[in-house]
Amino acid sequence: MGQCFRKQEPTTTYYKPTRATVDASIAKAPIQPPLHLRTPPPPARPTQMSTSRIFSQYSKLPPIRKPHNNNDTKRLSLECSEGQVTALFDLYKNDEDCIDEEGIVKFCNDLGVKPDDFIVLVLAWKFNAELMGRFTRAEFISGCKAIQAHSIKWIQSKFPLLLAEVQNRQTFKEFYRWSYKFCLTVEPGQRTLSTEVAIQMWTIVFSQREPPILPRWFRFLERHESIRGIPKDTWDMFLPFTEQVRLDLTNYDESEAWPSLLDDFVEYESDLHNQNVQMQE
Residue 38's pLDDT is what? Predict the structure, then answer.
């Protein structure tokens, strides 16, 4: 009877997988590579926010302006400096609202040059001056704009560029031909330059690069008092004469369309040469 009331202990049932069950679970499980060969997971994407929500608190930004091109910049700089050019002109003008000879002398003194210097003649050419010894308001202002200078220091800084510009053969030819008309206004009503004025102008025009024949040409003009003036065709053709004819004049061709004054000069030089040869003999 004691056995009937004996406490019974619970029995534990152990599961023992079979070989088939183990093989099936291994086949279903993914094969993981070793830790050092595993690819790290991608970073978490940031939370996207609406663009309109981000910039809703700011006002609309103005459009970005494109930079001005070179022409616009130059135009603006010239417009801004016109007042300074006008003020500079007013320093030298007379009661007739132009710069006369007295004002030009003062203007040249401030520039550190002489009125008969080559660079002053180049300035007059760039200013497109019509009369020698005078600058009108329009000529002075437009000239300063042309060389982009609005003060004495700026004009001085342009001297090297202006001198280099007239070194060009074609540009010098234009400058040379303009100088005749510019000097012609010294003697109103005249169609030819006086020999004296022409020699002075040739001296200035050729001061940067003097042709070797120039002194002999001056001697010829000074010894022939009958030559009272230099016509425009003689002035214009003298430049190619200095460029094409050799110093000994042996390649001068009278049959070409040279002015008669140059024919006389070559004949005069030939006679001098023959006289010197005879004297030496």
Answer: 59
pTM: 0.69
String of b and e for 6-24 (b: at least 16 CB within 10 Å)?
A: eeeeeeeeeeeeeeeeeee
Q: With contact defined as beta carbons under 8 Å apart, do 271 and 265 qualify?
A: no
pLDDT tens digit string along 7-28? 445 554 545 556 655 455 555 5
Q: SS3 string of 2-66?
A: CCCCCCCCCCCCCCCCCHHHHHHHHHHCCCCCCHHHCCCCCCCCCCCCCHHHHCCCCCCCCCCCC
**Quick one: average pLDDT of 239-260?**
94
Based on the number of CB atoms within 10 Å of its own CB, is 149 exposed (0-12), middle (13-18) or buried (19 or more)? buried
Q: At 138, is the pLDDT very low, low, confident or very high (cuts 50, 70, 90)?
A: very high
Which residues sit opposite 229 in a β-bridge?
194
- Asked if residues 118 and 173 have their Cβ atoms less than 8 Å apart, the reply is no
Pairing of strands 193-194, 135-136: unpaired
